[in-house]
Amino acid sequence: MANNYESNFTRKLAPIILKEFETKRVLSKNVDTQLLEGRFSGKDTGENVDFKRPTDYRSVRTSDGDVSGETKSDIIYGKATGTVQDYFTVFVDFQEADEAIKMAQKNELVDIPMMNRLVTDFELDYGKFMMKNTGLLTGSVGTGVTSWEHVARAGAMLGSSGVPRDAGWCFAMNDFTQVKLASEQRSIGVNPEAGSANTQAVVKENFAGMRVMACNTLGSYTTGTGSNRDGTLTAAPTATYVGAKDTMTQSIAVTGFQANLEVKAGETITIAGRNRLNLSTRQPVVDETGAQIVFSGTVTADVTLNGSGAGTLVITGPAINETNGQYNTVDSAPQSGDVVTLGGSASSIIQPNLFWHKQAFSVGSVPMEKLYSTDTIATTRDGLQLRVSKGVGFLENQKKIRIDFRPAYAALNPFFAGQAFGS
Predict the structure, then answer these.
(1) What is the spatial distance between Cα 378 and Cα 391, in angstroms, rounded to a whole number?
(2) Whole-prediction pTM value?
(3) Any residues with CB less than 8 A from the CB of 330 and at least 6 apart, and which?
């Protein structure tokens, strides 16, 4: 018996969709990815899955090997939480898709009007997530990257912060930053692979240990009105690893800012007098002038301060300082009265460049329930899954083709990623 064409329709379309999805991704091609099989249920957003964080230890030195009087290492397990996002869906009339396949115009149907939109929206959403979950900072917020030295500082920050070199480091800039750097470019050293947005995005391989890329899906935010962007802590925040281990965030109570200031997710803060430590050696991070690098964090959610310029900010990349020392991130704990500064100037659109280690972030796809239609599931080589469905809207008397993608995002380690600016 001859094959039923309509029953094979989604199987014919799925390989094309999969190819386009794979080749158009940039940011999500350079982070940890996985298929979260069996780890979620239902179809509501906001469900979570946990990834265990590694523990750290401290060594002691003794002349005779007697450690009975020494403080032992604390074994503390933390977790990174992945959160299911909304569905990303594109859909068209079946007739349009049917004609495109029969007329060998599959790529025209899928490439531009469908997969471009799905991938762009997904990558932009993920780029905003990355921006809001960075723990490091280089340069002056709002100042453009205008030289390769500014790019190199991001690599220096990763290295001096103790970020391991066991996986790829990346740096993503917008296309106009690439133009600015073009006059300094001497050797590209890259052979773009036709059809791959990820490969074509590479401006320079292995510069300061990083893959440097141009990307048009970086996140941005607009700073609030009002010139007073300096305030103080009204209390000492919780500076223990136990308090931060499951979220890698920290709540800081502030006052003295511009009245009713809107603080946006993605904005960076610095705390004067509290300096960053190398997370491997627990020694101070020192720049080329011999100055210590001040502690910085990134605001994770929008907050509107009150009429006194007071409120509570939640930042990622917490300032931890304990007697034991094995998880310390700063040389001293923040205290009430410390000066806190928001980066950048008022009423400005800020689009940070991003730099990160591959294990800073993760994106997984959640297996989707089968619809009462003809479905085909397509899975990328790095474990992300899409669903291609053909069904009927019997109330509308129409047949539709839809493509769905349901991701989950996780910030595995904010200290493995940062925002980069010029100086």
Answers:
(1) 17
(2) 0.85
(3) 239, 274, 275, 276, 277, 295, 319, 320, 321
